[in-house]
From TrEMBL:
Protein name per the record: Uncharacterized protein
Keywords, alphabetical: Membrane, Transmembrane, Transmembrane helix
Organism: Scleromatobacter humisilvae
Spans through the membrane: 21-49, 61-86, 106-125, 131-147, 152-169, 189-207, 284-305, 311-332, 359-382, 457-476
Keyword Transcription regulation: no
Keyword Transmembrane appears in the UniProt entry: yes
Amino acid sequence: MNHSESSAIARILASPFQQRINAGSAWGAIVVVALCASPSASFLAWSLVADAAQAPAIRHGAAVSGVIAAAALLVAGWMMLIGNLLQQNRPAMARLVPGHVARLRAALLLAWALAVLAITAGPGFALEQPLAWACGAAGGLALLAAALRWPVLWIAGFLFAFVVLPAMAWQGPSSFAESVQAQWRQSGWLLTAIVATAGAAALAAILSDGGGGTRAPYDAGHALGRLFADSPQAGCARRQVGAARPYAAWLERQLARRDSPVSSRLLLGLGPAVHWTMRIRHGLVFVAVGGGICAVVVGLAAFLGRDLRGVLPWLSFSLLTGASTPALQAAAQLYRTQREQALLVLLPGVPRGAGLNRWLAWQMTALFVFSAMWGFLLAGALDVLAEVLQQGLVKRSGGGDMTAAIVVALLPQVVFQWRSWARVRGASGQEFLPSLTPFLLGGVALLLHLWAGVAYLPMGLVFMGLAIAYCAWRWWRMGSEPTAMPIGRLAR
């Protein structure tokens, strides 16, 4: 391989990360890495002040959380790389650029080999099972990449993990595990060679030279994205499809009325991302998802004959952390409707200057508070269900403290809804940063509760008082700031 080829492959591998840096999301990646490392750092700090009898267990927890964080970062980076390579394997470019697909395949195989070697050299040698870790990493990364290319593999993987394996283990868990271990001890190198060969072939097949095989999944992915899109790429006045139908129906209803309020039309002009019809839809989706997860947990418990009720408090924690995320990330999506905003502010009766700034802040606040309260309701319902099934289950599972810490830290995020809207930047990798705030504040609340014995209620009142004071200061500042709409027109 000559220098030009190696440079081209290096640029291909660096392209997903370079694109995020160009989009202004380098700090976002740094924050994500820091948050992934924070549990291990917290455990290590805790072990320094804990009792000598508890220190080994705490350090073990730090090691486990570090391994989980590293695995999560590896999987996220691998998925980002695969998605970027699939985007570069456009149906037209695959044939028009000489050697394009060959370079993509070489870059993909090189990244796969480096990831497998890193996993083997890290936990593989640390646990004295490098061959097993190499085999698992090679097969797992190749399967994940293939699933991103052919989504039907997700269904096959789900059936294998939750139907085939439990059915095989149901016949005799110990004998099944012993047979697998015996086969591995006898033919470990052969199985690793087979998995590595099959993985390399699958990775090479992911990227193709064009034709119907490349265009079909490419077009299917775009069609699926259009079906589930909350709003079109630019503007909100065109026909809405898929998930935005509740918003589209309300839009048609307001346009048909000659006496519809100006505030209602102005709110519709901001787009589906910030409208109450979509918040109701997202709330119903959360109910369906939460009910489905509970049904899966109960079904697995009945099928495997195991007690999985301790999972319910952790499900409530997950629902609580995800309920308000769409409302926090809606601010960046206001950029899509800048043209509509420029026209709507000319309507008679629309607030001007400070009035418009404060009106938008109140609307965004109501949007967030509704989502947060819906998350509180769902989390509380799951915790009540867990307590009904078994008294004291929430406290013993450990999920109760995590949920309480997030409850304390969730509502103070309202400060992100009182921005200088005329200077808000467009959608970038930093738009998810407000969603990470409850984990930081929640971690502080959890440490204060465990170390200093501070109750959650006083901490929640202090955090909320500081947030209200900041919002009051922003309300005063908005009186002298440029008018909010169009959103981001003064952004640098």
